[in-house]
């Protein structure tokens, strides 16, 4: 009976240590999950803020103001515009790409 009692006591101790270890691991994983969810919320907030900034920075009025103020650009006026005449290539007749013989194969 002493052996059986010792064996059951050892099994009870191992089960208790296993339970404590499992509880600790569960708490550790829960804390990591909470941190990840908080980080996800913060990243979502940052993403929304960046999208708003991008939309406000890409408005044409802001771009035009920035071009005038920082780059000292001015809009093109009709009197200052110079038009260049380029070389005009001859156009090919519509039936020039068809093979000789008149029938498409």
Automatic annotation (TrEMBL):
Coiled coil, from the record: none
Function: Essential cell division protein. May link together the upstream cell division proteins, which are predominantly cytoplasmic, with the downstream cell division proteins, which are predominantly periplasmic.
Entry GO terms, CC: cell division site; plasma membrane
Main location: membrane
Gene Ontology biological-process entries: FtsZ-dependent cytokinesis
UniProt subunit comment: Part of a complex composed of FtsB, FtsL and FtsQ.
InterPro entries per UniProt: Cell_div_FtsL
Keyword Disulfide bond among UniProt keywords: no
UniProt-listed PANTHER family: CELL DIVISION PROTEIN FTSL (PTHR37479)
One matching Pfam family: FtsL
Full protein name: Cell division protein FtsL
Cellular compartment(s): Cell inner membrane; Cell membrane
Membrane topology annotation: Single-pass type II membrane protein
Signal peptide coordinates: 1-26
